[in-house]
Amino acid sequence: MARQFFVGGNFKMNGTIGGIKDIVKHLSEAKVDPNTEVVISPPSLYLLLTRENLRSGIEVAAQNVFDKPNGAFTGEISVSQLKDSGITWTILGHSERRTILQEKDDFVASKTKVALEGGISVILCIGESLEQREVGKTNEVVLSQLAAVAKEVKDWSKIVIAYEPIWAIGTGKVATTEQAQEVHAAIREWLGKELGQDVADKTRIIYGGSVSEKNCRDLAKEKDIDGFLVGGASLKPAFVDIINAKQ
Ligand code: PEP
């Protein structure tokens, strides 16, 4: 079953008006693999600017969204506000939000449910810490993060799962192809057992953690790696090479 290769760019809290315009121009003019689905995620302040300047065919994601429709929630943005601005995706559950902002599994699940119900597709991030990996708890951690979402969400067709080991994010320490494939395979097996073979076959599971133009091609050869979520390298021209990793 062929799953479309997916590459997301997470700018995190980086960029300026000028810098983001440059990235968007570069990406809009670049020769990107037409078989790859590409989504970029600037800080919320620059979502509209990005959407307005980016060529069609490349989508834009928020880095977060709140689980209430509107009201007195200072600092948050809603699903309907994203839709109103032409934004079709959101990242949820990024480890920086789970660890620094203490977001719990059930909150991530609630936001995922609300985003999907409002027509926003979700890049759902899961991943273990170094300590958890070292005590052999990788699968237990990532599968329980997934199970929390599965309690709330039945339709997985608008979810891309991003497996992002925390120890590999922004560290330059990429998971080996074997380490990544092993967890992706465990996730796919869990999807099959818990949600059915169709969900397992169709759901994209992408890898994130120090992906670069140097390591992307080997990772992309693994059978259960359906693309990447890219942080640091998404701000650089080499992001295009990562998008084209399957060519
Ligand atoms: C990320 O923030 O999702 C990420 C994977 O970052 P980096 O590529 O910089 O490790």
UniProtKB/TrEMBL annotation:
It comes from the Eukaryota. It comes from Dissoconium aciculare CBS 342.82. PROSITE patterns: TIM_1 (PS00171), TIM_2 (PS51440). Belongs to the triosephosphate isomerase family. Homodimer. This is Triosephosphate isomerase. Pfam families: TIM. GO terms for molecular function: triose-phosphate isomerase activity. Its EC number is 5.3.1.1. CDD domains: TIM. The keyword Isomerase applies.
